[in-house]
Amino acid sequence: MADKVLIATEKPFAESARNQMVKMFQEAGLQPVVLEKYTDPKDLLAAVSDASAMVIRSDKVTRDVLEAGKNLKLVVRAGAGYDNVDCASAKDRKVIVENTPGQNANAVAELTMGMMIMIARAKYSGKSGTELKGKKLGVHALGNIGKIVASLGRAFGMEVCAFDPFLDQCIFDDCCVGCITKIEDLYSSCDYVSVHIPATPETVKSINYALLSKMKKGAALINTARAEIIHEEELLKIMEDRPDLKYASDIAPKNAAAFMEKFADRIFFTPKKMGAQTAEANTNAGLAAAQQIIAYLKEGKVLNQVNP
Ligand code: 3PG
Fold this sequence. Notes:
Elements: E1 4-9, H1 15-27, E2 31-36, H2 41-48, E3 53-56, H3 63-68, E4 74-77, H4 87-92, E5 96-99, H5 105-120, E6 136-140, H6 144-155, E7 159-163, H7 169-174, E8 178-179, H8 183-189, E9 192-195, H9 209-212, E10 220-223, H10 232-241, E11 246-249, H11 256-263, E12 267-269, H12 279-299
Parallel strand pairs: 1-2, 1-3, 3-4, 4-5, 6-7, 6-9, 7-8, 9-10, 10-11, 11-12
Bound molecules: 3-phosphoglyceric acid.
């Protein structure tokens, strides 16, 4: 019997991307099953029960999901961040977890620039705004997305610098960006700070009052990474204390209503995480995920494993 491959996306891929994935699996002799827009996690538990592999996006793969997937060997997160997967439980159950790094980076970077312009132009309200040209952009983490944001920022005529303690100086040089060695210096010297760190136990709530209080007068924080990395209560507090600061985020904080009530003209939140929500990003990440699943199920090849 053909191995079942589940494509489980609460937030579906663009139709063309999903159809190409289905075709790839069929041509490889696998049996694709699609579960989209599910609202009850029980639907995922039922759908995974006889799957050998699964493609997901931000879908939560908990211990329960892994236990329900009795035949499950591989989970591929079509995207970069895998904070939605219980990687330790997967390891316990000998389930490989992979991601598709870089495949949706351009889409996220473009949204980042869009949010910067939206903030600079007073949320398109008709009020006079400012320009990005000549402003200083600080990129917090110079990974696949941060590098594209840096390059787009330079194309806009911004002065770009970055903080990334995990990289050698040569990477900063290759990207033609200034290297900032202390995170506080990034926040204190830039007009726009764009965050591109993953959500990990170390980074959750790490963007806190102490760091935000260092921000330059009139600066804006752009978050197209994860809501969890921001200390939301402390963000609310600093925005009360500093009426000059602005915040734009791809996905609203939990206490979005309080932010909207108090600072509507200097915040912006997307209604749903949409950084990677383009046909191109869905095609790149979806097809890469499908290729990785076929490579594993047909040839035993493990690519981009994140839970070794
Ligand atoms: C990622 O980590 O790749 C992005 O946040 C995209 O997430 P999504 O696939 O849920 O849109």
